[in-house]
Specification:
The strands form five sheets. This protein has a four-stranded antiparallel sheet, with no helix packed on it. Strands 5-6-7-8 form a four-stranded antiparallel sheet, with no helix packed on it. It has a four-stranded antiparallel sheet with strand order 9-10-11-12, with no helix packed on it. By secondary structure, it is mostly beta strands. The chain has two helices and 18 strands. Helix 1 runs antiparallel to helix 2.
Length: 259
Amino acid sequence: FVGISLLILLRNSKYSLPLGNQKKILPRAGMAVIFLCAATLVATSSPSLWIRSPLIDTPQGVELRAGYFDGLKHADDLFYHPSWGVLVANEGGSSVYQWFNGRWRRIVDPSKQLRDVDSLTATDDALYVSDGSQKTIFRYTTKTGFERAWTNADGLTHPEALVSVGPALYVIDNEKELVRLEEGSDAQRWTPTNPEWKTPEGIAYSPATDTFVISDDGSGAIFEGAFGHTLNVRGTMGAAEDIFIPDDGALLVTDNGWG
């Protein structure tokens, strides 16, 4: 912005240089503007240059691990598993990224099967990715790569948030139903009747209570209960988006209504 302003002043000011000198100086000034813009983009996107954020007043600051120039174009979901590290559903880039053992990488998808990467979860040996536009949940292992685990043939219409519990996978489908999926078994579908159940968005499982905690960004409600049973409203937020329960049992929720 500063560079562009200087160019305008040089060109239009009554104190501008004679035309001959402008022809010599303006191209150089233009190159300086390009350099400043490029430097700004790098500085605001590179994890090696922007380590701490002045916007959050904490002793540690904010550490940026990856940004646009690292492949992220719409990071829609985040999940952590000790066997996989931090996994990122990169919806805008139709891909999944991983931060593990100090290394940032894109999980290979050579046949480009992924399109609408919405949410993900993982077990010790497999990664599961929901792809709403393809009505599919993909399974990934280091041996087989990405393969279709459940599709529209299993009744899926638009799978989004999902969580793994034992041998089963639980997924929010079509913004209404909660579906239980297990290999070798038919899908079990359930639509809660709670009036606050409008557009469920995130799901997590609590081993301590053997219940699911589900966020609803339509009503802002946080539900808790067992599959197929009554869901109780645990609390209400502005527009509860994503949800996660770490090992200590705490409940972490992102709220789009309050930022």
